[in-house]
Amino acid sequence: FFFSNMKQQMVFSCRKANSLFKPCKLQVRLSANLGPRLQGFVDPVENNENTSCKGLRFHIETYGCQMNTSDSEIVRSILCGAGHTPCSSVEEADVILTNTCAIRENAENKIWNRLAYFQSIRKKRQLANDVRAPVVGILGCMAERLRDKLLEEQSVNFICGPDAYRDIPRLVSTSVSGSDQKAANTQLSLEETYADIQPVREASRVEAFVSIMRGCNNMCSYCIVPFTRGRERSRPIPSIVQEIQGLAAQGVKEVLLLGQNVNSYHDKSLDSQKAYSTTSYRSTAGFSNLFRARDGAGARFADLLREVSQIDPEMRIRFTSPHPKDFPDEVLHLIADSPNICCSLHLPIQSGSNTVLQRMRRGYTREAYLTLVDKARKIIPGLAISSDFITGFCGETDAEHRDTIDLMRAVQFDQAFMFAYSLREKTHAARRMEDDVPKDVKKERLQHVIETFREEVQRKNDVEEIGKCRLVLVEGPAKKSTPEHPMSTGRTDTNKRVVFEDHVIHDGWHGKVAPTACGGRSVQPNPGDYVVVQITQARGHTLRGIAIARTSLAEYIRCQ
Question: From which domain of life does this come (predicted)?
Answer without folding.
Answer: Eukaryota
